[in-house]
Amino acid sequence: MYLKDIIIEKKCLNCGNLFKTNSTKQNIKRKFCCSFCKTSFIGKNNKNKKVSIKTKKNMSISQYNRWSNLEERKKQSNRFKGENNPFYGKVLSKEHIEKRTKTGINRGSWKGDKNHMTGNGYKVKGENNPFYGKEHSEKSKLKMSKTKCELLSSGKLNLIQNFRGKKGWYYSNKNNEKFYYDSLLEKYRMEILDKDITILNWTKRHKIKILYKKGNIGNRYYVPDFLIKYKNGNIVLEEIKGYDTYYKQKKNALIKYCKKNKLIYRWIDQKDLGGYKEWKKDQKIIW
Q1: Phi/psi at 201 (5° precision)
Q2: Residue 220: CA atoms inside 13 Å, Cβ hemisphere, count?
Q3: Helices in 15-118 by DSSP H: which ranges?
Q4: Which residues pair with 212 in a beta bridge?
């Protein structure tokens, strides 16, 4: 007999109802009959507790990177599939369904546009939004740009929420580590860098951020694509660009930075990479 075949009865810490579960390691620790009771119980007990800004920031980065990783997402998906799902083969009672329905009505429900919720406590559309009619100061925007670029250049953040172009992970045999690419052009360049025998190593996690003037908007930061070290001792800071409105501003800022820090700058367009169109036809991106 397997542990999953041994059924035990437990009492829910939140609602007090009895529920049945199997004796697997995952389910034997269960204290609640459903996720709704779990979140309700945690909410009640954590009402007066405060989480520090530093903890919230670390949790946000950790959770985001976890779910932007394809392998991690597959693991989590398989972990709760079929019989591994604690609710496998079960049905909610009518009383529980009615309870959840009433709670949902009081809290608010999705209507029409998915970006907005309606209902008591969730009216955040238009003038009801606390940030309605306001705008971030230039100082705040620059600070946000700096923080974002610091996370990007250290490999702690991957812009999967930006759906322009194809994105994914590339494993470098030369560096023995994975790097995130933001476009097919970037992935193609990674393959070329790996095959180049004159290169000692290259990285995207170089922790370099460059300040440039974003037209009339103000100053912003951006992160160059690659830091390349050659066997002859040359160090190149390289940027690959398709279309960019602030092409000239970024290029000038890159040149100034490289001169100041005694680096060689390289600015590459699609035209500079021969064979890209032929290579692109054979690419199949799997998220």
Answers
A1: -160, 165
A2: 14
A3: 25-28, 35-45, 53-68, 70-79, 94-107
A4: 220
Contact status, residue 224 vs residue 264, Cβ threshold 8 Å: no
CB atoms within 10 A of CB 157: 19
Element (H, E) at 253: helix 247-260
Q: Give CA separation, 190 vs 43, 163, 225, 258, 266, in Å.
A: 47, 20, 10, 21, 15
Q: State the CATH architecture for 138-281.
A: 3-Layer(aba) Sandwich (3.40)
CA angle 205, 206, 208 (to 5 degrees): 125
H helices present in 69-137, as ranges: 70-79, 94-107
- Beta 109-110 vs 117-118: how paired, if at all? antiparallel
Asked if residue 21 lies in contact with residue 86, where contact means CB atoms within 8 angstroms, the answer is yes
Tell me the residue type at 38: K
Domain boundaries, the chain: 3-128, 138-281
41: tokens are 């119980």
Q: At residue 60, what are phi and psi to the nearest 5 degrees?
A: -65, -45
Ordered mean pLDDT values, 10 residues apiece, the chain (287 residues): 69 83 73 78 65 68 67 78 83 83 55 44 67 85 88 76 70 89 87 92 92 84 92 92 78 91 88 78 54
Q: Tell me how far apart the alpha carbons of residues 102 and 157 are, in angstroms, rounded to a whole number.
A: 39
Residue 193's pLDDT is what? 92
Q: What angle do CA 63, 161, 127 make, to 5 degrees?
A: 95
Query: What is the C-alpha to C-alpha distance for residues 17 and 40, in angstroms, rounded to an integer?
Result: 14
Query: Whole-angstrom distance between the N-terminal and C-terminal Cα of the chain?
Result: 39
Pairing of strands 264-268, 235-240: parallel
Q: Which residues contact 177 (CB under 8 A, 6 or more apart)?
A: 171
